[in-house]
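User: Before I run my own analysis I want an independent prediction to cross-check against. Here's the chain; please return only the structure tokens and, at the end, one sentence I can use as a sanity check.
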Amino acid sequence: MTQVDLNRKPLWRRGLARTMTIAATCAIVGVAAGVVVFGRGVLADRAAAVGKPEAAPIVTVAVAPLRFEDGYETDRRFPGQVQAGQRTVMAFEAAGEVAEIMVDEGDRVEAGAPVARLDTRLLEAERDRLIASRAAMEAQAELARRTTDRREALRDRGHASSQALDDITLQLAEATARIAEIDAAIAAIDVRIDKAVLTAPFDAYVAERMIDTGAMASPGAPVASLVEAEARRFRVGLSPEVAADLSADRIYEARFAGRLYPVALSAVLPELDPATRTRVAMFDFFPGDAPALRATGELTLPTTRSATGAWAPVSALRDGPQGLWLLTTVRQTEDGDIAAVEAVEVVHAETERVFVRGTFRDGDLVIVDGAHRIAPGQMVVPVPIGADEPLLSLAVAEAE
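Assistant: Structure tokens:
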């Protein structure tokens, strides 16, 4: 059938077809609407059958007050090194063969104890020769003395001339002078013999031994290095303004390998170190309580800094936007206590607490621990921690 044939259909048949199409469409739309209405009713009935959710339980939180302070005290630390009160390198003044070394490295020696000795046989032989020469001169002096006595008696009787008496008198004076010269030489030999033995100038430990028995020692060649046994000093470089505030009446603390040692100020050197531009301060350890020599430690100096803020436990901090930190505090309302969030800036941090400033007020209660479990606006029951309890010992616990 062609398009022309269709156009030739009667008008009533075309109207009937259009009416049937519209009726079918309306029927489909009505069925769909009924299904929607029925579904909504079923869902509403199911929702009505489910009970209302229970309110979130009120939690108990440990809190501590934030108290404003005008500043905080912090420790400044300055590195330093332990030095011996005295250190010396011992050496012989004269050359010679080392006859004996009495000490070894690490030995403790008392003041005056021998450390090393040179071979002194030649010196002792020279001393014996001088003693013999002195005996001979003493004999000559005695002969001159007796001759003088006899010449004086003969001169008094007129049997001797004055010239002869003067000759024998001068011989006696010469012999006496030679005896004094020999005595001086013997004394010099004794000094050389004494110096052939090195003795410890103070109570010390042998830090190093540089020569052995049988070696030839040159004048001034190092034999042994000694460090004072008891007296030890802590040498620290400080800025000039810090050094000016030191006091000899205070007891300071030095930290070595986690242990604190009390020290007292001994002296502050008047000159600046040309390399570090610092002033060197010397501190004395107390007897019987000092670290090892050349140990490196830190001098701890308390310093007060001006700033308005409050101390808070580290466990109360949470990360915030743009480098800030957050504290969860407790705010009082008509309905009860609720959690609130305050933005803070950390001014100073220590191991278990931080000094902060921010949007909180003086006296606000901060949740000590477990703030990540609390949502802003949530009802809480604050429980102040005891004055003698550590800030980190209490955790958030839900109330039964």
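Sanity check: The first strand starts at residue 59 and ends at 65.
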